[in-house]
Amino acid sequence: MKKFKPMLLVMIAVFLMFATSASASNYVTKTKWKNETYAQSDIIHTNGGKVRLRGGYTGPGKATIMFMYSIDGTSRYGPIGTYSFDTFMSGRSFTDYVDVPSGGYFYVVITGDETAEAYGRIDDKK
């Protein structure tokens, strides 16, 4: 039993490691807080299908949320969604869907005034 117990603990640790990394790779979220002018998320990979783009904006000032896409993950990324917010749109949010049949790599870029707060999320859950 003493030889079996450490092996069981290692198996549980490996299972938890893979279970948490698999669930975390389904989405990426980035927030631009006040006193920031630029924020960029990590890059995620999707296998294709519908991808949900979500975001929101609060506060005075202007903000732009861009969802960037690349087929092969090189430095050639292009926007698949760009959403601009102005002072009069405080408290707004959006949800949009994009069909990406071949899969690819995504990340979020948020720019804006220091007084604006915004967030963007890419979610490949169906």
Written account of the structure:
Keywords: Signal. Residues 1-24 form the signal peptide. With 126 residues, the protein is an alpha+beta fold. The protein has a single domain, classed as Jelly Rolls (Sandwich). The chain is 17% helix and 50% strand. The chain has one helix and nine strands; from the N terminus they run H-E-E-E-E-E-E-E-E-E. It has one helix spanning 4-24; strands at 27-32, 38-40, 44-46, 49-58, 63-70, 78-85, 92-100, 104-112, 117-123. The strands form two sheets. Strands 2, 3, 5, 6 and 8 form a five-stranded antiparallel sheet that branches. A four-stranded antiparallel sheet has the order 1-9-4-7, with no helix packed on it. The longest helix has 21 residues, at 4-24. Residues 20-24 have low confidence and may be disordered.
Number of domains: 1
Mean pLDDT over the full residue set: 84
CATH fold group: Jelly Rolls
Helix-strand string: HEEEEEEEEE
Low-confidence stretches: 20-24
List how many beta strands DSSP finds.
9
How far is the N terminus from the C terminus?
44 Å
Strand content: over 45%
Shape: globular
Please identify, by name, the CATH architecture.
Sandwich
> How would a textbook summarize the main sheet?
5 strands, antiparallel
The CATH class assignment is: Mainly Beta
Structural class determined from secondary elements: alpha+beta
Helix content: 10-25%
Question: What is the helix tally?
Answer: 1
Radius of gyration: 19 Å
